[in-house]
Design brief:
Two copies of one chain form a homodimer. With about 190 residues, the first copy, chain A, is mostly helical. Helix content of chain A is about 65%, strand content about 5%. Chain A contains seven helices and two strands, in the order H-H-H-E-E-H-H-H-H. In chain A, helix 1 (about 5-15) packs across helix 4 (about 75-85) and helix 2 packs across helix 3 (about 35-50). The longest helix of chain A has about 35 residues, at about 145-180. The first copy, chain A, is elongated. Chain A starts with a helix and ends in a 9-residue tail after the last helix. The interface between A and B is large, with 81 and 80 residues. The structure holds a DNA duplex (28 and 28 nucleotides).
Amino acid sequence: MALAQAILACIADCPCTGYDLAKRFDGSVGFFWKATHQQIYRELAKIEEQGWIVGETILQENRPDKKRYSLTESGSNHLVQWITEPTELLVIKEDLLVKLFSGHLVPPELLIAELQRHQQSHAERLGVYQTLEQQFFANPQSLSLKGTCSYLTLRKGIRYESDYVSWCEEAIDLLKETKTSTTSSFVRES
Amino acid sequence: MALAQAILACIADCPCTGYDLAKRFDGSVGFFWKATHQQIYRELAKIEEQGWIVGETILQENRPDKKRYSLTESGSNHLVQWITEPTELLVIKEDLLVKLFSGHLVPPELLIAELQRHQQSHAERLGVYQTLEQQFFANPQSLSLKGTCSYLTLRKGIRYESDYVSWCEEAIDLLKETKTSTTSSFVRES
DNA sequence: GCGTCCATGTAATTCGTTACATGATTCG
DNA sequence: CGAATCATGTAACGAATTACATGGACGC
């Protein structure tokens, strides 16, 4: 399981609290890894016990105390070791494609509407990513190695969303043609 | 959880056994949904109890007996109902991007090698999908609605893999440039 | 004789999800 | 005056992963 490593990667980038992590996993990092705050706090306790991180309690006035975690050397070694190991390919579990697989069981208008919804959601995300690209990565050739690494994860997001939008368009178009060319075919289910 | 519905969708397409399902989830359907045989048998027991499928035991000679499942009307209704509901977007958990996020902690050569491995794997899958496209979907305009639906899931696979291959290429190129332009930067970790 | 295919399952453990809980502060 | 933000957690449940188990048939 890579939740532990995803947390280590975030803490390596910048020491932070469970609460901060939850926010990051819900935003930028969330493009390639999602986790809820409950998962995070449980995992933090586990990897602190492992000795990969140490937490220092920070007392605050007018706010709850917080605990900021930093990588230990052992944690850093583990992370580097993990990065070095060959990675499995992503396992996809996409509801929308399961639905489309049995899509002939429902009126095509319904499929088209659903595809349009998804097209819009992905277009929105694409917009967000493109804004980030313009703001922070105007000149990709001149980035440091760290910068390049961040930029490449963003590029993956941009490509992914942009491809999703195009596919939705293709799918909607083809369904519209199919629909009109076989008008009698939707009253065929028992 | 959509495992139940993914199984229903397969059985709706063609009645089959748990063993058959496991093979399908490992092959074609596996592009958009993965499941092991243990998950499948457990889920089959659950959805048979629900009344969405019925199993008939088929006695065999020289082979273990098997149980072939078919959709009930209730199961078919449920599947249609599920397809009709709005779908959540896919939650991505991609190890490779987590590694890239902390990629500056390891020598860039290592990242490049890993990206090349992935590029090759995705290129292989792409080849498989493209062969299927040529064999079974030579003429997309003339497909039935059912054919169009299958074709569109395949198109998603083709786009996904092809985009992945392109991104790997982009990433490798950029890392090679970054590497040479900041040669001194990898001996900087404590 | 050894591995693979057929066909189904149990058991243990880890991981993910949902609900519940606290309590002060700040913004509208 | 109510909602959101900060900050952390417990408890219960459901789902996924991994390991273990059986046993004949067939090809090399």
